[in-house]
Known about the structure:
The structure holds 2 protein chains of 2 kinds.
Chain A: H1 8-32, H2 36-49, H3 55-65, H4 71-77, H5 85-97, H6 106-122, H7 126-140, H8 149-165, H9 173-185, H10 189-205, H11 209-218, H12 227-243, H13 247-260, H14 266-282, H15 289-292, H16 302-313, H17 316-325, H18 327-333, H19 336-357, E1 360-362, H20 363-369, H21 375-387, E2 393-396, E3 401-404, H22 415-437, H23 451-474
Antiparallel strand pairs in A: 1-3, 2-3
Helix pairs in contact in A: 1-2, 1-3, 2-23, 3-5, 3-6, 6-7, 6-8, 7-8, 8-10, 9-10, 10-11, 10-12, 12-13, 13-14, 16-17, 16-19, 20-21
Chain B: H1 3-20, H2 24-38, H3 54-74, H4 78-93, H5 105-118, H6 122-130, H7 134-137, H8 140-154, H9 157-162, H10 172-194, E1 197-199, H11 200-206, H12 212-222, E2 227-229, E3 232-234, H13 249-266
Antiparallel strand pairs in B: 1-3, 2-3
Amino acid sequence: MKDNQTQTQSLVSATTTTSTLQHLKEIAALIDTKEVRRIARAVRLTVGLRRKLSGSVISSFLDFALVPGSEAHTRLSCFVPKGDDMEVDTASSSTSQAPPPPPPPTELEIYCYFILLLFLIDQKKYNEAKVCSSASIARLKNVNRRTVDVIASKLYFYYSLSYELTDDLAAIRSTLLALHHSATLRHDELGQETLLNLLLRNYLHYSLYDQAEKLRSKAPRFEAHSNQQFCRYLFYLGKIQTIQLEYTDAKESLLQAARKAPIASLGFRIQCNKWAIIVRLLLGEIPERSIFTQKGMEKPLRPYFELTSAVRIGDLELFGNVQEKFSKTFAKDRTHNLIVRLRHNVIRTALRNISVSYSSISLQDVAQKLRLDSVADAESIVAKAIRDGAIEATIDHKNGLMVSKETGDIYSTKEPQTAFNSRIAFCLNMHNEAVRALRYPPNTHKEKENEEKRREKKQQEEELAKYMAEEDDDF
Amino acid sequence: MDPQLTEVSQQFERFKAAFARKDYDTCSDLLSQLKVLLTKFTSLPPLFESSPNAAQELTIARDIYEHAVVLSVKTEDQDAFERDFFQLKPYYVDARNRLPPSAQENLILGLNLLRLLVQNRIAEFHTELELLSSATLDNPCIKHAVELEQSFMEGAYNRVLSARQTAPDATYVYFMDLLAKTIRDEIAGCSEKAYDYVSISDARQMLLFSSDQELLNYVNEEHPEWEVKDGSVVFQKAKETAPCKEIPSLQLINQTLSYARELERIV
């Protein structure tokens, strides 16, 4: 054997190569079953192998899966970088011994694209990934099989990712729209879900909130198939709603997105929390301190924590300082415009503090405390705050006074009743959603669940958790 | 030169001449002819086909729509403004890489922001704002509109009114005047809630009227529920926060029944 002549180092790499290749062959067998559930599992298993992929593994897998010399094979293998001679040698020697395989099923061909893309992106060969993903999308257009959908939705994702990494997202917008169109016609719901999110991401990347909202409100909606996609959808929806001043809905969407996201996806949850904090501040709520001390979030949320303190105290000067100090972070998070909107909440809070502390205070003093330029400004600002219900007071124009009203006994009104009701409604809703979210694989009641199956299931769940963690790294 | 392009540019010259003469009727006629002519250019949005004259065609089309927007301000036609602005927008957003930037761009974007503010379409205002880069936000035209919105939200109406003097361009005055009317209504709404009564002269000042008679007319037309007596305006306050004496029985029954139903589903 040639292996004997090589150094130990390449021997080790050769053994890992063979074991990875063996894994891949097992996965290929899963795909060959042409069962949607098995294919989904194959995709999950592949992501687990991701770190071990190398040029030689890919090329030998391509030789195994596709007929060498066929059109698909040449098209794909030109993307694989050549390893050193030794490894290519082993790869070719193993294929020469194998009998010529029958023409591969379409699923397997598409899967080859997928694994190649994973490899190219991990190797940071973004331009090759772009070409490869475009080729895969072109190939997918002619395929209409439900069994391919799972792999296809992954391909869409990496297609968009490779363009995003090369900062060329606008170029693929019309292709994505066309793909979404055909996914809808083919009732490929997973594809629709993925593509809609990619489109929203595409629009939001360029701050085209108007277009994003128009697409979102008109695209068909259905029960979510994938939790990750649903989280993303909620996050994008929350962002759109925030920009369009629908703060209450936005808060709901963002908090739900943060809650539903898997624990491992720290980056995504930080993003959700940043937006949720701003929305809550805009609504006049103060987020609890525990939000800022969540594991791993303390540092990234620091600017937002200081912002919250400034709003809570109602100190315009401190608010200005925080805005100045973290202006780079806010510009990077693209939350700068939202924070400008917060100024008016700072004034509100300060006014509320004043009206609680004093039973009557001259407008001159109010202007001074709020650091406003003139008494006239103070008067109209107070008037507006009264109309919007932020403070309970009246203005005595003649004497230039703001007179706070006695706060009535809140328990004599319907207020507690409504608050209680909305909380109960929230809990009931949460329960209903949890029940609805339980998924039952088809025909499980027929199969007897023996020990082996249960083990397999447990293993599958672990894979899923791991896979989610991997997935979110990409985000 | 392409005959179509020549025709358009000649027509456009005539339009500009009429525009300088302030002959706005002729302008509108010429403009509709121009718009029809523009449809023959395939290099314009949304097609963006490449043709030898693409850059020239795009530039002249953008120029025409910019004039159309300004014309609609002069003729005080807000609907036309909206239409023309939407036709113009692709030239600023999608054709950004194909054309050198227009000198008018910030002026027109600022005008549009102001229009949205006047029409109280704050959500759209913020959506438009997101599209602007931080460099654009520092432009005086845009900054003017953004600061107006902030003062408006805070309730510092005096600042909004005094901003009329600092308007960056003559075209802004039309919208600023409209804004003054919106603000009067806002002030009236706020005063109603904030004051028990104010003297007529103070009310006149606050609501920006030049004579008592105008104020009285305004009160009669817009707020008949206000009472004018003893030299002051008395706002009838709806006492909505009075403690409720009645138990809202129907509502309570409904709520309790729905809890029961939900609980049954859980158990």
